[in-house]
Amino acid sequence: MIYKNDTQNMFSSYNFCGEIKFDGFLKRLDNAIIKLPEKIKELENSIETTKENISKYTRLVEQKLPYPRLEYLQALKLDHKTLIDDLAKMGKDRDYKPAFNPKSKEVLEKMNAEKRASLENEREEIKEQANQEAYSPMKKAVNDDYDMGM
Q1: Which of 73, 109, 112, 124 is the most buried (most CB within 10 A)?
Q2: Per the confidence metrics, is the pTM higher than 0.85?
Q3: For the chain, how many structural domains are there in total?
Q4: With the CA atoms of 106, 109, 114 and 119 taken in that order, what torsion angle do they form, in degrees rounded to the nearest 10?
Q5: Rounded CA gap, 125 and 117, in Å?
């Protein structure tokens, strides 16, 4: 396939001047000029919302919340490295028996235990609050507390 840059026949397939008459061109130009201020306002609003979004997302990024399962991720990386090393050793020595003990499983169990403990603490606190509300003496109503509309 050969590319030819033929500038003489570039517009030969579409005759722009034959399709659009001069008065139609002026009408289109007039419509474009009339709609220009609206388009400028839309674009200015778009710029403002973009600036607001940038500032909002910048604040979110600056908070830099720590990854909640970072310890688990690091344990998984260590397990992965250990498995790759064991596979390499098994490739060299057919009699090699790996003694793989996944660290990530221990970390995950520890995280789940902490989660269960925190949920149990929350349940106990909710029960204590409910008990305190149930046994607290009710305040006597003062006549001013109720408005009978009189």
Answers
A1: 73
A2: no
A3: 2
A4: 180
A5: 12
